[in-house]
Fold this protein.
Amino acid sequence: MKYVITIGREYGSGGRFIGKKVADTLGIPFYDNELITEACKDSGLSPAVFETFDEKTDGFFSGAGMYSYDISLSQKVFLAQFDAIKKIADKESCVIVGRCADYVLRDVPNVCNIFICAPMEEKIKRAVEFYGLNPEKAASQIIKKDKKRKGYYNFYTDLDWGKASNYDLCINSKLGIDNCVNVIVNFVKERFNLE
Amino acid sequence: MKYVITIGREYGSGGRFIGKKVADTLGIPFYDNELITEACKDSGLSPAVFETFDEKTDGFFSGAGMYSYDISLSQKVFLAQFDAIKKIADKESCVIVGRCADYVLRDVPNVCNIFICAPMEEKIKRAVEFYGLNPEKAASQIIKKDKKRKGYYNFYTDLDWGKASNYDLCINSKLGIDNCVNVIVNFVKERFNLE
């Protein structure tokens, strides 16, 4: 049976890493940056445009610093990813991280939507260790990054990012990465009646 | 090892029922209405006061329809339950539903906080079947009840009811009651290293 797991995540929660491990455990493909490449193929937009405008909506909210052709490009990137996500989900079972995949696939059967969060002190630790953030500035940078994710999500969907009732399962990664993977895999098996 | 599971839940989500089944599966006590009785014992307040003011804060938000001695009684009920929850959590492993137990026990080790939600159509079905709500008025009544729960929770805590990052695990009961119980029990075992 074909099924899709979408993962939304707070910055520094380990959500991407957990998603990759869940995909590996279930033996299905994982899409994150790969998705951008996939989207580029059919859209006619250059990879540089994707790098610049991926999951960005600054101009929509700040009201400054982004010209109208930039906004148009942001939307083109979103729409190209929208199409790519639909094609991927149509083709095979997979895990897709970010990019409003839950909303894009809202009318597709056998999709389950997961959100991963973490306490601020653990997000700081992870962001410093894995993304090289300055320990003193990490907290404010994490808040800013999540504000952008929330803005991007709430702009393109009619839902509220990080609100429990939007998702099938939300898990706090303070449980530990491998424990989270176990809980999610168990959840997916219950959800889709996998052995 | 002693551990406590707190459960917050949307009205009609089946959260109370799931909590009871989780407690039964784990072989630990379950506290909901029992908690009120427990709280009454030491507080000197009559059971009638508890019935009237339990998880109610109307006056705080409507600004009308409740006199100051009512507000004072609401707070006394809250504080009596606060003490009772602390005593119960100190005594034994258990499941506690509602009443801001997650907030009351925020500094206690080995507590995990779970939130249970459900799609509106399933909450209506359940509220009509189990609580006898009028099918035509059920949706607005459910919204009102959850607004009160959110108000009660947000008033007494510095947290936001139903926001994923406040909890260790949030689960949508559209998965099915028994499947939810399995996922939660699995989660609790991962969390507390139970066999």
In short: DSSP finds nine helices and five strands in chain B. The two ends of chain B are 12 Å apart (CA to CA). The first helix of chain B runs from residue 15 to 26.
